[in-house]
Amino acid sequence: VSPRGAGNRASGEAAVRALPSVEEVRRLRTARQGTLRGCEPQRCWATPRSAEPSSEKLGTTPVMTRYFRVLPAPPNSSRSLMVSRKGQNRDTGGKQSADKFVKLAEDTSNSLQPDVNFINTFLKPEKLTRVEKRFKGRAVMEMMKLDKAIKETRTRLEPLVVETRQLLEEKDHVQKENQFFQEYLTKQTEESRQRTEKLWNYYLQQSMKIEQRKQELTSKYANKNSALKRELLEKENTLSNLNKQLEAMRDISQEIKKTHDETAAKKQAMLVQFVQDKALLEAQLSELEARQSGKKLTKELKSKNQALEKAAKQHVSELHSNINRQHQQLQKELPELVQKCHQLEDTHSQLKKKQQLLQQEQWYVECLRRGRHQLQERRNRCPNGQGSPKTTRNPALGTKSKVHPK
Protein backbone atom coordinates (compact mmCIF):
# COMPACT_ATOMS: atom_id res chain seq x y z
CA VAL A 1 0.00 0.00 0.00
CA SER A 2 1.39 3.44 -0.94
CA PRO A 3 1.79 6.15 1.71
CA ARG A 4 -0.51 8.40 -0.26
CA GLY A 5 -3.29 5.81 -0.34
CA ALA A 6 -2.74 5.04 3.31
CA GLY A 7 -3.02 8.74 4.14
CA ASN A 8 -6.25 9.08 2.14
CA ARG A 9 -7.64 5.99 3.82
CA ALA A 10 -6.73 7.32 7.25
CA SER A 11 -8.33 10.68 6.51
CA GLY A 12 -11.48 8.95 5.22
CA GLU A 13 -11.70 6.79 8.31
CA ALA A 14 -11.22 9.88 10.52
CA ALA A 15 -13.99 11.66 8.62
CA VAL A 16 -16.28 8.63 9.03
CA ARG A 17 -15.47 8.44 12.74
CA ALA A 18 -16.18 12.19 13.11
CA LEU A 19 -19.76 11.72 11.86
CA PRO A 20 -22.35 12.04 14.66
CA SER A 21 -24.92 9.38 15.44
CA VAL A 22 -28.27 9.19 13.64
CA GLU A 23 -30.22 9.75 16.89
CA GLU A 24 -28.33 12.98 17.62
CA VAL A 25 -28.99 14.27 14.10
CA ARG A 26 -32.70 13.45 14.36
CA ARG A 27 -32.98 15.21 17.71
CA LEU A 28 -31.23 18.36 16.48
CA ARG A 29 -33.26 18.45 13.24
CA THR A 30 -36.54 17.99 15.12
CA ALA A 31 -35.66 20.86 17.47
CA ARG A 32 -34.64 23.09 14.56
CA GLN A 33 -37.79 22.32 12.52
CA GLY A 34 -39.98 22.98 15.58
CA THR A 35 -38.23 26.29 16.06
CA LEU A 36 -38.80 27.27 12.44
CA ARG A 37 -42.49 26.27 12.62
CA GLY A 38 -43.03 28.43 15.71
CA CYS A 39 -41.32 31.37 14.08
CA GLU A 40 -43.72 34.12 13.07
CA PRO A 41 -43.07 36.26 9.96
CA GLN A 42 -42.41 39.30 12.12
CA ARG A 43 -40.13 37.45 14.57
CA CYS A 44 -38.40 34.94 12.32
CA TRP A 45 -34.65 34.90 12.83
CA ALA A 46 -33.73 33.17 9.57
CA THR A 47 -35.35 32.66 6.20
CA PRO A 48 -36.50 29.10 5.39
CA ARG A 49 -34.08 27.20 3.17
CA SER A 50 -34.70 24.66 0.45
CA ALA A 51 -35.57 21.05 1.10
CA GLU A 52 -32.67 18.98 2.41
CA PRO A 53 -31.84 15.44 1.37
CA SER A 54 -32.97 12.89 3.91
CA SER A 55 -30.18 11.55 6.04
CA GLU A 56 -32.05 8.30 6.65
CA LYS A 57 -32.13 7.44 2.91
CA LEU A 58 -28.47 8.32 2.44
CA GLY A 59 -27.40 6.65 5.64
CA THR A 60 -25.31 9.66 6.59
CA THR A 61 -25.63 12.47 9.10
CA PRO A 62 -24.75 16.15 8.68
CA VAL A 63 -21.56 17.00 10.48
CA MET A 64 -22.23 20.73 10.88
CA THR A 65 -25.37 20.22 12.95
CA ARG A 66 -23.23 19.74 16.04
CA TYR A 67 -21.60 23.16 15.54
CA PHE A 68 -24.82 25.18 15.42
CA ARG A 69 -26.83 26.13 18.46
CA VAL A 70 -30.57 26.16 17.66
CA LEU A 71 -32.01 29.30 19.23
CA PRO A 72 -35.76 29.31 20.03
CA ALA A 73 -37.73 32.43 19.25
CA PRO A 74 -37.57 34.73 22.31
CA PRO A 75 -40.80 36.03 23.89
CA ASN A 76 -39.86 39.59 23.09
CA SER A 77 -37.17 39.83 20.44
CA SER A 78 -36.83 43.60 20.76
CA ARG A 79 -35.87 43.35 24.42
CA SER A 80 -34.38 39.89 25.15
CA LEU A 81 -31.91 39.48 22.25
CA MET A 82 -28.39 39.16 23.64
CA VAL A 83 -25.24 37.78 22.02
CA SER A 84 -22.79 36.37 24.52
CA ARG A 85 -19.05 36.12 24.10
CA LYS A 86 -19.17 32.37 24.67
CA GLY A 87 -21.64 31.90 21.81
CA GLN A 88 -19.49 34.00 19.50
CA ASN A 89 -16.40 31.91 20.27
CA ARG A 90 -18.38 28.71 19.71
CA ASP A 91 -19.73 30.01 16.37
CA THR A 92 -16.21 31.02 15.29
CA GLY A 93 -14.86 27.53 16.08
CA GLY A 94 -17.79 25.92 14.26
CA LYS A 95 -17.19 28.06 11.18
CA GLN A 96 -13.51 27.07 11.08
CA SER A 97 -14.41 23.37 11.43
CA ALA A 98 -17.01 23.70 8.66
CA ASP A 99 -14.47 25.37 6.35
CA LYS A 100 -12.00 22.55 7.01
CA PHE A 101 -14.71 19.98 6.33
CA VAL A 102 -15.67 21.57 2.99
CA LYS A 103 -12.02 21.84 1.96
CA LEU A 104 -11.43 18.19 2.88
CA ALA A 105 -14.46 17.11 0.85
CA GLU A 106 -13.28 19.08 -2.18
CA ASP A 107 -9.75 17.67 -1.91
CA THR A 108 -11.02 14.10 -1.65
CA SER A 109 -13.36 14.62 -4.63
CA ASN A 110 -10.45 15.82 -6.75
CA SER A 111 -7.77 13.33 -5.66
CA LEU A 112 -9.66 10.05 -5.02
CA GLN A 113 -7.97 7.96 -7.79
CA PRO A 114 -6.07 4.64 -7.29
CA ASP A 115 -2.37 5.14 -7.81
CA VAL A 116 -1.18 1.80 -9.24
CA ASN A 117 1.91 3.41 -10.76
CA PHE A 118 3.14 4.11 -7.26
CA ILE A 119 3.04 0.38 -6.46
CA ASN A 120 4.66 -0.52 -9.79
CA THR A 121 7.46 1.94 -9.09
CA PHE A 122 8.41 0.29 -5.81
CA LEU A 123 7.46 -3.26 -6.82
CA LYS A 124 8.72 -3.82 -10.41
CA PRO A 125 7.09 -6.84 -12.13
CA GLU A 126 10.35 -8.33 -13.55
CA LYS A 127 12.08 -8.46 -10.16
CA LEU A 128 9.23 -9.74 -7.99
CA THR A 129 9.32 -12.94 -6.10
CA ARG A 130 6.37 -15.12 -5.39
CA VAL A 131 5.77 -13.55 -2.01
CA GLU A 132 6.11 -10.05 -3.43
CA LYS A 133 3.65 -10.88 -6.21
CA ARG A 134 1.22 -12.19 -3.63
CA PHE A 135 1.75 -9.00 -1.56
CA LYS A 136 1.28 -6.87 -4.69
CA GLY A 137 -2.00 -8.62 -5.50
CA ARG A 138 -3.23 -8.12 -2.00
CA ALA A 139 -2.15 -4.46 -2.12
CA VAL A 140 -3.99 -3.95 -5.40
CA MET A 141 -7.09 -5.56 -3.90
CA GLU A 142 -6.82 -3.32 -0.88
CA MET A 143 -6.31 -0.32 -3.16
CA MET A 144 -9.47 -1.24 -5.08
CA LYS A 145 -11.41 -1.67 -1.85
CA LEU A 146 -10.04 1.66 -0.62
CA ASP A 147 -10.98 3.31 -3.92
CA LYS A 148 -14.49 1.93 -3.63
CA ALA A 149 -14.76 3.17 -0.04
CA ILE A 150 -13.45 6.57 -1.08
CA LYS A 151 -16.04 6.79 -3.85
CA GLU A 152 -18.80 5.83 -1.43
CA THR A 153 -17.49 8.38 1.04
CA ARG A 154 -17.41 11.03 -1.67
CA THR A 155 -21.00 10.14 -2.60
CA ARG A 156 -22.01 10.56 1.04
CA LEU A 157 -20.00 13.78 1.42
CA GLU A 158 -21.53 15.60 -1.56
CA PRO A 159 -24.97 16.22 0.08
CA LEU A 160 -23.20 17.00 3.33
CA VAL A 161 -21.11 19.67 1.58
CA VAL A 162 -24.24 21.15 0.02
CA GLU A 163 -26.02 21.11 3.37
CA THR A 164 -22.96 22.59 5.07
CA ARG A 165 -22.82 25.44 2.58
CA GLN A 166 -26.53 26.10 3.08
CA LEU A 167 -26.04 26.07 6.83
CA LEU A 168 -23.11 28.47 6.52
CA GLU A 169 -25.20 30.83 4.39
CA GLU A 170 -28.05 30.58 6.89
CA LYS A 171 -25.58 31.22 9.70
CA ASP A 172 -24.28 34.36 7.95
CA HIS A 173 -27.86 35.53 7.46
CA VAL A 174 -28.67 34.92 11.14
CA GLN A 175 -25.49 36.71 12.22
CA LYS A 176 -26.43 39.72 10.08
CA GLU A 177 -29.91 39.74 11.60
CA ASN A 178 -28.42 39.39 15.07
CA GLN A 179 -26.10 42.30 14.36
CA PHE A 180 -29.06 44.39 13.15
CA PHE A 181 -31.10 43.55 16.23
CA GLN A 182 -28.12 44.17 18.45
CA GLU A 183 -27.57 47.62 16.94
CA TYR A 184 -31.31 48.35 17.24
CA LEU A 185 -31.38 47.26 20.88
CA THR A 186 -28.22 49.24 21.61
CA LYS A 187 -29.85 52.33 20.13
CA GLN A 188 -33.06 51.73 22.08
CA THR A 189 -31.08 51.17 25.27
CA GLU A 190 -29.20 54.44 24.78
CA GLU A 191 -32.45 56.31 24.13
CA SER A 192 -34.01 54.75 27.24
CA ARG A 193 -30.98 55.74 29.28
CA GLN A 194 -31.18 59.31 27.99
CA ARG A 195 -34.92 59.46 28.76
CA THR A 196 -34.25 58.10 32.23
CA GLU A 197 -31.55 60.72 32.82
CA LYS A 198 -33.89 63.48 31.62
CA LEU A 199 -36.68 62.26 33.89
CA TRP A 200 -34.27 62.00 36.80
CA ASN A 201 -32.98 65.55 36.21
CA TYR A 202 -36.57 66.81 35.97
CA TYR A 203 -37.40 65.01 39.19
CA LEU A 204 -34.40 66.57 40.94
CA GLN A 205 -35.40 70.06 39.74
CA GLN A 206 -38.99 69.58 40.89
CA SER A 207 -37.79 68.19 44.22
CA MET A 208 -35.53 71.21 44.74
CA LYS A 209 -38.39 73.57 43.87
CA ILE A 210 -40.74 71.77 46.26
CA GLU A 211 -38.12 71.86 49.02
CA GLN A 212 -37.54 75.58 48.45
CA ARG A 213 -41.29 76.23 48.46
CA LYS A 214 -41.61 74.17 51.63
CA GLN A 215 -38.91 76.23 53.36
CA GLU A 216 -40.57 79.48 52.25
CA LEU A 217 -43.98 78.34 53.51
CA THR A 218 -42.44 77.14 56.78
CA SER A 219 -40.73 80.50 57.40
CA LYS A 220 -43.89 82.36 56.38
CA TYR A 221 -45.98 80.19 58.70
CA ALA A 222 -43.52 80.76 61.58
CA ASN A 223 -43.54 84.54 61.04
CA LYS A 224 -47.32 84.70 60.81
CA ASN A 225 -47.69 82.49 63.86
CA SER A 226 -45.36 84.70 65.91
CA ALA A 227 -47.17 87.83 64.68
CA LEU A 228 -50.53 86.32 65.63
CA LYS A 229 -49.18 85.38 69.04
CA ARG A 230 -47.91 88.93 69.60
CA GLU A 231 -51.22 90.39 68.44
CA LEU A 232 -53.13 87.98 70.66
CA LEU A 233 -50.97 88.96 73.64
CA GLU A 234 -51.53 92.66 72.93
CA LYS A 235 -55.28 92.12 72.60
CA GLU A 236 -55.33 90.20 75.85
CA ASN A 237 -53.47 93.01 77.60
CA THR A 238 -55.88 95.58 76.12
CA LEU A 239 -58.83 93.44 77.19
CA SER A 240 -57.51 93.15 80.73
CA ASN A 241 -57.00 96.94 80.89
CA LEU A 242 -60.50 97.56 79.58
CA ASN A 243 -61.89 95.10 82.09
CA LYS A 244 -60.14 97.02 84.83
CA GLN A 245 -61.51 100.31 83.48
CA LEU A 246 -64.98 98.80 83.25
CA GLU A 247 -64.76 97.67 86.84
CA ALA A 248 -63.64 101.19 87.79
CA MET A 249 -66.58 102.68 85.85
CA ARG A 250 -68.92 100.32 87.60
CA ASP A 251 -67.53 101.58 90.91
CA ILE A 252 -68.04 105.17 89.70
CA SER A 253 -71.64 104.46 88.71
CA GLN A 254 -72.23 102.92 92.10
CA GLU A 255 -70.67 105.99 93.74
CA ILE A 256 -72.91 108.24 91.64
CA LYS A 257 -75.95 106.26 92.66
CA LYS A 258 -74.84 106.32 96.26
CA THR A 259 -74.25 110.09 96.06
CA HIS A 260 -77.75 110.56 94.62
CA ASP A 261 -79.21 108.53 97.45
CA GLU A 262 -77.18 110.39 100.06
CA THR A 263 -78.13 113.78 98.56
CA ALA A 264 -81.80 112.85 98.56
CA ALA A 265 -81.52 111.62 102.13
CA LYS A 266 -79.73 114.82 103.23
CA LYS A 267 -82.27 116.94 101.43
CA GLN A 268 -85.10 115.06 103.09
CA ALA A 269 -83.40 115.34 106.49
CA MET A 270 -82.79 119.08 106.04
CA LEU A 271 -86.39 119.57 104.96
CA VAL A 272 -87.56 117.67 108.01
CA GLN A 273 -85.24 119.72 110.21
CA PHE A 274 -86.44 122.93 108.58
CA VAL A 275 -90.07 121.94 109.09
CA GLN A 276 -89.34 121.05 112.68
CA ASP A 277 -87.47 124.32 113.27
CA LYS A 278 -90.27 126.26 111.61
CA ALA A 279 -92.85 124.49 113.70
CA LEU A 280 -90.82 125.17 116.80
CA LEU A 281 -90.43 128.85 115.94
CA GLU A 282 -94.12 129.13 115.14
CA ALA A 283 -94.90 127.48 118.46
CA GLN A 284 -92.62 129.91 120.25
CA LEU A 285 -94.19 132.85 118.43
CA SER A 286 -97.66 131.63 119.21
CA GLU A 287 -96.64 131.15 122.83
CA LEU A 288 -95.22 134.68 122.96
CA GLU A 289 -98.30 136.02 121.31
CA ALA A 290 -100.40 134.11 123.83
CA ARG A 291 -98.39 135.48 126.73
CA GLN A 292 -98.41 139.00 125.41
CA SER A 293 -101.89 139.00 124.16
CA GLY A 294 -103.19 142.42 123.78
CA LYS A 295 -99.77 143.90 124.23
CA LYS A 296 -97.58 145.18 121.49
CA LEU A 297 -94.37 143.41 120.92
CA THR A 298 -91.37 145.32 121.77
CA LYS A 299 -89.07 146.56 119.17
CA GLU A 300 -86.34 144.15 120.33
CA LEU A 301 -88.49 141.06 119.95
CA LYS A 302 -89.56 142.06 116.51
CA SER A 303 -86.01 142.59 115.41
CA LYS A 304 -85.00 139.24 116.91
CA ASN A 305 -87.89 137.49 115.22
CA GLN A 306 -87.04 139.07 111.91
CA ALA A 307 -83.39 138.08 112.33
CA LEU A 308 -84.37 134.48 113.05
CA GLU A 309 -86.71 134.32 110.07
CA LYS A 310 -84.08 135.87 107.84
CA ALA A 311 -81.42 133.41 109.07
CA ALA A 312 -83.80 130.49 108.57
CA LYS A 313 -84.69 131.60 105.03
CA GLN A 314 -81.05 132.17 104.18
CA HIS A 315 -80.08 128.77 105.53
CA VAL A 316 -82.87 127.10 103.58
CA SER A 317 -81.96 128.97 100.38
CA GLU A 318 -78.28 128.06 100.74
CA LEU A 319 -79.20 124.44 101.34
CA HIS A 320 -81.46 124.43 98.27
CA SER A 321 -78.82 126.12 96.14
CA ASN A 322 -76.13 123.64 97.23
CA ILE A 323 -78.40 120.70 96.58
CA ASN A 324 -79.45 122.10 93.18
CA ARG A 325 -75.85 122.81 92.22
CA GLN A 326 -74.72 119.31 93.17
CA HIS A 327 -77.71 117.85 91.38
CA GLN A 328 -76.99 119.83 88.21
CA GLN A 329 -73.34 118.84 88.30
CA LEU A 330 -74.27 115.20 88.72
CA GLN A 331 -76.83 115.52 85.93
CA LYS A 332 -74.11 116.92 83.66
CA GLU A 333 -71.62 114.19 84.57
CA LEU A 334 -74.13 111.34 84.37
CA PRO A 335 -74.63 111.32 80.52
CA GLU A 336 -70.91 111.40 79.96
CA LEU A 337 -70.40 108.54 82.38
CA VAL A 338 -73.28 106.58 80.86
CA GLN A 339 -71.92 107.16 77.34
CA LYS A 340 -68.46 106.14 78.45
CA CYS A 341 -69.91 103.07 80.10
CA HIS A 342 -71.74 102.14 76.87
CA GLN A 343 -68.56 102.69 74.87
CA LEU A 344 -66.65 100.47 77.25
CA GLU A 345 -69.31 97.79 76.97
CA ASP A 346 -69.20 97.99 73.15
CA THR A 347 -65.42 97.84 73.22
CA HIS A 348 -65.62 94.90 75.58
CA SER A 349 -67.98 93.03 73.23
CA GLN A 350 -65.78 93.82 70.20
CA LEU A 351 -62.72 92.64 72.05
CA LYS A 352 -64.57 89.48 72.98
CA LYS A 353 -65.39 88.87 69.32
CA LYS A 354 -61.79 89.58 68.32
CA GLN A 355 -60.59 87.24 71.02
CA GLN A 356 -62.88 84.53 69.67
CA LEU A 357 -61.62 85.16 66.13
CA LEU A 358 -58.02 85.03 67.32
CA GLN A 359 -58.77 81.82 69.19
CA GLN A 360 -60.32 80.38 66.04
CA GLU A 361 -57.27 81.44 63.99
CA GLN A 362 -54.98 79.96 66.59
CA TRP A 363 -57.03 76.77 66.57
CA TYR A 364 -56.93 76.67 62.77
CA VAL A 365 -53.16 77.17 62.71
CA GLU A 366 -52.70 74.50 65.36
CA CYS A 367 -54.96 72.06 63.48
CA LEU A 368 -53.11 72.81 60.24
CA ARG A 369 -49.78 72.13 61.91
CA ARG A 370 -51.04 68.91 63.48
CA GLY A 371 -52.61 67.79 60.21
CA ARG A 372 -49.38 68.39 58.28
CA HIS A 373 -47.41 66.60 60.98
CA GLN A 374 -49.80 63.61 60.95
CA LEU A 375 -49.80 63.54 57.14
CA GLN A 376 -46.00 63.58 57.09
CA GLU A 377 -45.88 60.77 59.66
CA ARG A 378 -48.43 58.76 57.67
CA ARG A 379 -46.44 59.22 54.45
CA ASN A 380 -43.26 58.15 56.19
CA ARG A 381 -45.00 55.19 57.83
CA CYS A 382 -46.95 53.89 54.80
CA PRO A 383 -45.66 55.25 51.42
CA ASN A 384 -48.58 53.66 49.48
CA GLY A 385 -50.91 56.36 50.90
CA GLN A 386 -53.27 53.94 52.73
CA GLY A 387 -55.49 55.40 55.42
CA SER A 388 -56.72 58.93 55.89
CA PRO A 389 -55.50 61.56 58.36
CA LYS A 390 -57.61 62.17 61.41
CA THR A 391 -59.68 65.34 61.51
CA THR A 392 -60.62 67.50 64.46
CA ARG A 393 -63.91 69.27 64.77
CA ASN A 394 -64.01 73.05 64.86
CA PRO A 395 -64.89 74.27 68.38
CA ALA A 396 -67.92 76.48 68.83
CA LEU A 397 -67.47 80.21 68.50
CA GLY A 398 -68.72 80.86 72.02
CA THR A 399 -66.41 78.38 73.75
CA LYS A 400 -63.50 79.68 75.77
CA SER A 401 -59.90 78.86 75.08
CA LYS A 402 -58.05 76.45 77.34
CA VAL A 403 -55.05 78.75 77.37
CA HIS A 404 -57.08 81.81 78.45
CA PRO A 405 -60.10 80.66 80.51
CA LYS A 406 -61.26 84.25 81.01
TrEMBL record:
Mark out the compositionally biased spans (Polar residues): 383-394
**Could you tell me the keywords of this UniProt record?**
Coiled coil
- UniProt keyword Plastid present: no
Q: Which InterPro entries match?
A: DUF4515
Q: Which residues form a coiled coil?
A: 225-361
Q: Which residues form the signal peptide?
A: none
Q: Does the keyword Coiled coil apply?
A: yes
In residue numbers, the region (Disordered) covers 75-96, 376-406
Spell out the Pfam families in the cross-references. Answer: DUF4515
What is the name listed in the Swiss-Prot or TrEMBL entry for this protein?
Answer: Coiled-coil domain-containing protein 121
- Native species of this protein? Bos mutus
Taxonomy of origin reads: Eukaryota, Metazoa, Chordata, Craniata, Vertebrata
